[in-house]
Amino acid sequence: MSKNSTQRLDRFLRPGRWIRDFVDDLAVASPARLAIGSFVAVVALFAILLMLPASMRDPGSVPQAEHIANAVFVAVSSVCVTGLTPVVTESYWSDFGISVITAGIQVGGLGILTLASVLGMAVSRRLGVRQRLIAQQATSALNLGQVGTLLKTVVITIVTAEAILAVLLFPRFLIRGENLGDALWYSVFYSISSFNNAGFTIHPGGGAYFASDPWILSLLMLGVFVGALGFPVVLMIALQWNHPKRWDLHTKLTLTTTTAVLAVGLLFLLIFESANPATLGDKGAGHTFVEVLFMAVMPRSGGFATMDIADMSQSSHLLMDLMMFIGGGSSSTAGGIKVTTVAVLILAAIAEARGLQDVHIFGRRLTSSTIKLSISVLLTGAIIVFVGTLAMLQISADPLDKVLFEVISAFGTVGLSSGVSATVSEAGLYCLSVIMLIGRLGTITLAAALSMQDSARLYRYPEERPVVG
């Protein structure tokens, strides 16, 4: 029997292996096609489920066209772990509908991390030894030659983190007077929503319902913070928690930049909102600090809010625009251009200002390709936000500051809302849905696609430097 015949017979007898090999080959050959195709298919499935009458608490209460737009928007928002919604979740959707949304968040969170891992593996296989060593350093003894092993590690890490959060939330909901079943359900729902940076809530008023409960706020913050660090960072810390000196550059850079962004956000939000009577002006210092810390963590991609965004000052809006655009860590459920991208650009700017040829940090030198990739991600993100804002301004009657906030929240898959999603037309919902999908997939696929381009010319042009600045 020929080799090709043997391979065909093997695929017929072992379809699971054939599917795995097909996905593996597609990840290597066309990561962008794999990313876009898989996410669109998953979104379509959940949109169809949400369109069913069983998903609505009051079927027929809204026109069919409006319900379809709501279903598509919420499906995209859940699978892309954003949290934006044009309707009140607990009153519009039935128990079945909320279960579908919860499943969408879980599938979306798992899909994002596994997709990033598969794309990273595809890049490492294309580039060879250097990227393999970097990936192995981030995951210790993990064998990157096997897709299943990597994905299994991702799933176990996520489920373990969510289980810990749920166990910590459960007794608090019991203390608040919930019955056993409701306490268990709320614990599971909010552990999934927070760790995956989704920001969906099922209580009246959203996150404001827990504004006076520092225990629940702290756990929601913890889930969002850890989930936004990224799988490589979480795994590195879990494996090398007692040896910080052994942490790789990505982990150190992510933690340092995340801490800096969080500290700046906390400081300025305290300044901007402490004297604002519509938000924190009449509250005590301790309560104010907890709420401001909560609001400083959420723009990383969390989406929970203890205060009405519309009541916050314009200065806070602009600050949160920047924080949402930056987002969280790479290979995480957070959106944005990622903290490492910003860190690389700042370090490159400092090195250029000091006249240094190389960019150094933590005893390591950054490659020129890393700097170019960071510039590409920044420009791509800015273009998406600019075009999305122009489109939404043509559709919506809301002012620029509200539209810009909503577009950046959609692009960064954050979920904080200025109120545009709740009032915009069906065309606006579809537009924001596209922005969420592009924002979720754009930077991942762009980074993978550019990293896999390893071509070199056999000649170089003469060097000449134009006047810049």
UniProtKB/TrEMBL annotation:
- Domain of life, source organism: Bacteria
Q: Which species is the source of this protein?
A: Brevibacterium marinum
Q: Name one GO molecular function term.
A: monoatomic cation transmembrane transporter activity
Name the InterPro entries on file: Cat_transpt
What subcellular compartments does it reside in? Cell membrane
GO terms for biological process, alphabetical = metal ion transport
Q: Membrane-spanning residues where?
A: 34-56, 68-88, 100-123, 150-171, 183-203, 215-241, 253-272, 322-351, 371-391, 403-421, 427-450
Q: What is its main location?
A: membrane
Q: Which UniProt keywords apply?
A: Cell membrane, Ion transport, Membrane, Transmembrane, Transmembrane helix, Transport
Name of the protein this chain belongs to: Trk-type K+ transport system membrane component
How is this protein positioned relative to the membrane? Multi-pass membrane protein
A GO cellular-component term linked to this record: plasma membrane
Source lineage: Bacteria, Bacillati, Actinomycetota, Actinomycetes, Micrococcales
